[in-house]
Design a protein that fits this description.
It is a single chain. The chain is α/β, with parallel strands linked by helices. It contains four helices and 16 strands. Strand 13 and strand 14 form a beta hairpin. It is elongated and about 60 Å long. The termini are far apart.
Length: about 230
């Protein structure tokens, strides 16, 4: 699939999906579906701003894209276009309509798609956040996630790689979200509401005797186990 047909970037409000105005509409929408399906777990739950540039998009065509996204757990909330036809179609579908697309902003605490760090030439891209994630915050990464702070209950992290929390982990975490069962989750205090690695799920037991200690969660014998982190 040509990279220029569909581009997806993280912005302050969610995901900005840009569709090229040059290619045939059915071809572009097919490419969009294939692009999302290739990383379905990563994109699930995302709020989408769609930019179609100068292309005039009819109401039925825009409705098809809206349904395409909804079937994949995504929500189209706004459309950006230079075409009055597209703006009218968006308004008819009760979508927010803009005449110009926003420049992708620096990732906000609410949602992070890619804040890269690459400490080695052959390293893996990831996200590093120097703050506590409060309830309602969502972090997404196509690599690893490192949090210098706590992850409060109600916050969520979804990563294709590992998740490391230099603090207390109480929210929801999904490491290896694309099926990588070698991914791990580490925290100085491991008490997540829900913990997922690849396709495995675990919840923290209620234990009033819990004492904070560094732990690592990983897949062993087809289940998630939690062990001491760092010996």
């Amino acid at each position: 699939m040509p990279d220029s047909t569909v581009t997806i970037k993280g912005v302050k409000e969610g995901l900005l999906i840009t569709l090229t105005p040059e290619e045939e509409w059915l071809s572009v929408t097919s490419d969009l579906a294939a692009r999302i399906d290739g990383k379905s777990a990563f994109y699930a739950g995302a709020h989408v701003l769609l930019d179609v540039g100068t292309r005039p998009v009819r109401k039925d065509e825009l409705g098809t894209v809206k349904a395409l996204l909804e079937r994949r757990g995504m929500t189209l909330f706004a459309v950006s276009s230079e075409s009055e036809t597209t703006i009218e179609s968006a308004t008819a579908l009760d979508l927010r309509a803009n005449h110009s697309a926003p420049v992708p902003a620096s990732p906000s605490p609410a949602q992070v798609d890619a804040l890269p760090f690459n400490p080695e030439e052959d390293g893996t891209l990831g996200v590093m956040i120097r703050r506590t994630l409060r309830s309602g915050r969502l972090v997404r990464s196509q690599g690893h996630v490192v949090i210098f702070g706590d992850v409060n209950a109600g916050a969520e992290i979804i990563a294709q790689g590992d998740v490391i929390v230099w603090g207390r982990l109480r929210g929801n975490v999904h490491a290896g979200c694309e099926g990588d069962d070698t991914a791990v989750v580490c925290a100085l205090d491991m008490v997540p509401t829900q913990l997922r690695i690849a396709n495995y799920i675990a919840v923290s037991p209620t234990d009033k005797r819990h004492k904070p200690k560094p732990e690592i969660a990983l897949i062993r014998d087809n289940r998630i186990i939690v062990d001491a982190w760092g010996g």
